């Protein structure tokens, strides 16, 4: 982790709730957990072009392309080696900013058919998919090393007690 900081919390509860006595807002309890602040540079596994394109169910892409070392959908936050994702937005299509993203270091664009027309002049390989949002999730998992594989997932169901159980877990 980039930085670790202790978090002190204030806990206030009704008498008897979870067996915890009421605590005034002015008092603090010892730190309950460590808060890990995210790094500006997450762990990245460079992904080869062929490997990336093969991970999509159906797509149209150039045969050859560069290795991808990051992914972003904000053209103002592109870093050299990034795959820029141009999504259709409310007022504009993100692919219309592809040239700006390439100037900042993007090496390829992921978008839909409409975006491919807008991004054609950017001069980098384009991956065209039917659902660029879903494809972005697949690409991000691949580039950032499938972080969800290391997570333990719990499902809590029922009518009563879900919040309490989630807190205790």
From TrEMBL:
EC number: 6.3.2.13
Keyword S-adenosyl-L-methionine assigned: no
Top-level taxon: Bacteria
UniProt-recorded Gene Ontology molecular function terms: ATP binding; UDP-N-acetylmuramoylalanyl-D-glutamate-2,6-diaminopimelate ligase activity
UniProt domain Mur ligase N-terminal catalytic: residue ranges: 68-141
Keyword annotations from UniProtKB, A to Z: Ligase
Ligase listed as a keyword: yes
Top enzyme category: ligase
Name of the featured protein: UDP-N-acetylmuramoylalanyl-D-glutamate--2, 6-diaminopimelate ligase
Native species: Fusobacterium animalis ATCC 51191
């Amino acid at each position: 982790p980039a930085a670790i900081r202790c978090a002190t919390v204030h806990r206030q509860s009704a008498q008897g709730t979870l067996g915890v006595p009421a605590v005034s807002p002015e008092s603090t309890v010892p730190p309950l957990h460590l808060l890990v602040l995210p790094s500006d540079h997450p762990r990245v596994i460079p992904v080869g072009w062929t490997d990336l394109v093969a991970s999509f169910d159906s797509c149209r892409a150039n045969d050859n392309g560069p290795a991808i070392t990051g992914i972003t959908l904000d053209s103002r936050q592109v870093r050299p080696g990034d795959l820029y994702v141009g999504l259709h937005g409310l007022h504009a299509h993100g692919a219309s900013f592809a040239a700006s993203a390439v100037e900042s270091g993007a090496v390829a664009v992921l978008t839909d058919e409409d975006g491919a027309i807008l991004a054609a002049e950017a001069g980098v390989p384009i991956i065209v998919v039917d659902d660029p949002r879903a494809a972005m999730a697949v690409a991000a998992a691949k580039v950032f090393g499938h972080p969800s594989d290391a997570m333990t997932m719990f499902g809590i169901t029922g009518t009563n007690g879900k919040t309490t159980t989630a807190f205790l877990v």
